[in-house]
């Protein structure tokens, strides 16, 4: 049954097939054509004919009410649920790529990242591929100063012990380590699935600044947002409702629609003026 399920989900490709070219992915280009998804073979669709295109290096915010399909979209891009339609990542259909290659080329930062028992170094570089200077640069870029200001045992270093699950760190500190790990991996596609929804605004601001300033210009960033402040200065905003895209474009353009969904969300916010100001500065 397991092999049968894999066969149907992967369109006939078994996990040991579909090895992409060595240079792939060279860019973060993402093209989605009529993507639908469901959680079981006989279950209802949770995504319906979604189509969009993101150029390499673009920052896209994804918003919508609970149940709109935001997390389902991220799972579909990682081929974690059953999909129909086509997704092209750097020009190659992802259903032709084996799961190990696909998922190792994309970095997902969830709401509560998992950390391993060991040192900070082992968590940022579990396969011991990088030198200390590279790891320290990544930690600094991710906002290490915020982590150090709240540390439980003096200055944080690569040898600082991390408890199983990162329980000796705050959620915000775990997010900073997860972001440092993403910077080290140099993935061309980075997905934040409500990654900052459980942390305070100040730490969120640190992480968002790091994402804007420190990521390579060729990294595509998809941010499933809890706070509108997190995504209002994105290049584009996607609004989902009931598994469908209802709006997609520059936030400043979407806010011009008096009957638009994004505008309705912003107008209800206590930070309405700040959000409009953020959107107006997007080029």
Automatic annotation (TrEMBL):
<dbReference type="Pfam" id="PF00005">
    <property type="entry name" value="ABC_tran"/>
</dbReference>
<feature type="domain" description="ABC transporter">
    <location>
        <begin position="30"/>
        <end position="267"/>
    </location>
</feature>
<keyword id="KW-0547">Nucleotide-binding</keyword>
<dbReference type="InterPro" id="IPR050173">
    <property type="entry name" value="ABC_transporter_C-like"/>
</dbReference>
<dbReference type="InterPro" id="IPR003593">
    <property type="entry name" value="AAA+_ATPase"/>
</dbReference>
<dbReference type="InterPro" id="IPR003439">
    <property type="entry name" value="ABC_transporter-like_ATP-bd"/>
</dbReference>
<dbReference type="InterPro" id="IPR027417">
    <property type="entry name" value="P-loop_NTPase"/>
</dbReference>
<keyword id="KW-0378">Hydrolase</keyword>
<protein>
    <submittedName>
        <fullName>P-loop containing nucleoside triphosphate hydrolase protein</fullName>
    </submittedName>
</protein>
<keyword id="KW-0067">ATP-binding</keyword>
<dbReference type="GO" id="GO:0016787">
    <property type="term" value="F:hydrolase activity"/>
</dbReference>
């Amino acid at each position: 049954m397991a092999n049968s399920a894999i066969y149907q989900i992967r369109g006939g490709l078994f996990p040991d097939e579909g090895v992409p070219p060595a240079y792939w992915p060279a860019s973060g280009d993402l093209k989605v054509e009529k993507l639908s998804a469901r959680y079981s073979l006989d279950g209802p669709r949770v995504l319906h004919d979604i189509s969009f295109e993101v150029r390499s290096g673009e920052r896209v915010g994804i918003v919508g009410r609970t149940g709109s399909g935001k997390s389902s979209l991220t799972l579909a891009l990682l081929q974690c649920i059953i999909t129909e339609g086509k997704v092209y990542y750097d020009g190659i259909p992802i259903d032709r790529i084996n799961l190990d290659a696909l998922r190792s080329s994309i970095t997902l930062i969830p709401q509560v990242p998992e950390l391993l028992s060991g040192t900070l170094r082992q968590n940022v570089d579990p396969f011991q591929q990088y030198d200390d200077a590279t790891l320290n640069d990544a930690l600094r870029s991710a906002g290490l100063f915020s982590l150090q200001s709240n540390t439980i045992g003096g200055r944080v270093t690569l040898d600082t012990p991390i408890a199983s699950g990162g329980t000796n760190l705050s959620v915000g500190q775990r997010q900073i380590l997860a972001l440092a790990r993403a910077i080290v991996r140099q993935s061309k596609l980075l997905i934040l699935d409500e990654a900052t929804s459980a942390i305070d605004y100040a730490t969120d601001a640190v992480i968002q600044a790091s994402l804007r300033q420190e990521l390579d210009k060729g990294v595509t960033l998809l941010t499933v947002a809890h706070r509108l402040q997190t995504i209002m200065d994105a290049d584009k905003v996607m609004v989902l409702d009931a598994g469908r895209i209802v709006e997609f474009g520059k936030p400043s353009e979407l806010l011009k629609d008096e009957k638009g969904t994004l505008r309705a969300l912003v107008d209800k916010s206590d930070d309405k003026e700040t959000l409009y100001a953020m959107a107006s500065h997007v080029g």
